[in-house]
Amino acid sequence: MPGFPGWLAALGPGVVWMALAQGSGELIWWPYMVAKYGLTFLWLLAPACLLQYPLNLEIGRYTLLTGESIFRGFIRLHRGFAVFLWLLMTVSFLWFGAFASAGGTAMAALSHWPSGWSPRAQSLFWGYVSIAVFLIAILSSGVVYTLIERFMKLVAVVTVFGLLSACLNSDVLNALPEFAQGLLGPVAAIPRPWDDHDASKLLTAITFAGLGGFWILFYSYWLRDKGAGMAGLVGRITGLGGAEEAVLSDGYLPQDDAVGAGHWQTWRQFLRADIMIGILGNLFTTLMTCLLAYALLFPKGLLPQEYELAVVQSQFFAASWGEAGRLLFLVVAAAFLTDTWLATADAVSRIQADIVLTLFPKARRFAARQWYYLFLALLTIITGFTMQLDAPGPLILTSAVIGFAGTIVFPVVLYLLNYRLLPVHLPHWARPQRQPWLLGLSFVVYLLLAALYVNASFKLF
């Protein structure tokens, strides 16, 4: 097993995880629920975030020990089931262009340009502009993942700094003690009647408190291109500005020797730390957005609706810095949401190329980079079209609900993969040492959430 390169060199996928999680729902659904229902559901946030730890751990474990993507593992486990997941995933990501549209809303409110256009048309215009900018950046990059990681780190830093600054407002600080109590459980009766239409939004907020659905599989591909563990022996996707590398679908198993055992212990520590950076960092920023929503939006009854999501939430920063704060938030929100398109387009293109090369041997006459750019082009065209169909809120929600089906089955599939299929091929020191009770807990909770959602949607009971 390759040696550990050092913490500063290795850390990164967790920060990408954090930045993508922020833009893929935390800026949208949790503030909405808090602004509408106060502290009623806030106590669910921390458990929902931590619930994803065992899933990320098992996804990362497979990639670090084999150098393969998690979808390659699914195909090894059961080809037919993997194809089913592939089709479901493909459908779920047809709508992710809505994040660029939501970010475009922020830029439209910031610039009010093109003049004479409707707010909706301006949002779409800036959404398409952001997509074009990101495509140029990907094409001109050396190693694509390096571009993604650096940009997402920048977004994470700017977001945390901006939210912290906004939370220093006196009105926000005065609300902090009561807000903190809400983390332990409901502190009062629900402030307004429950709206059944919010069932899917609450489901999305809980399940996507982090990276839910098929988004969670991205972590495997980031670790792979980062060169973590055995993935250091496989190639990376490069931009047109970098030399093409041979990207292998099949990985390698670690040799049974003392050196490899020592390296694995360090890689295990890295994996846990990297995951917790993503989860706790995301939890921290989500708590700040919820605190701001509780202090500033809830008392006024302001609710983020449809494509005005980012505009309504500019009230966060306006409370601290006036008009300058409002403008700054819109810039941050634009990066916050459009970076979601960048990271998602990249990851989904990687996954599609990986699956095609694995399932269809004849496809290997073309390099992985060529397939990657083909799918990137297709995704850009498709999402550019779906952005026209509806406002960002419903589109993001549709993607989340479809992806929830994957969330339910992932704990079971990861158990079969890492605790039944893989261990017999590994040295004893690389095999799981404990029973995956946390993985089982995740499965039970997600199954219960699915049952509650179906009941709320169809009034079965």
TrEMBL record:
The keyword Transmembrane helix applies. The keyword Transmembrane applies. Keywords: Membrane, Transmembrane, Transmembrane helix. Coiled coil: none annotated. The chain crosses the membrane at residues 37-55, 81-104, 124-147, 154-176, 202-222, 275-297, 327-349, 370-389, 395-417, 437-456. NCBIfam families: Nramp_1 (NF037982). This is Nramp family divalent metal transporter. It comes from Methylomonas paludis.
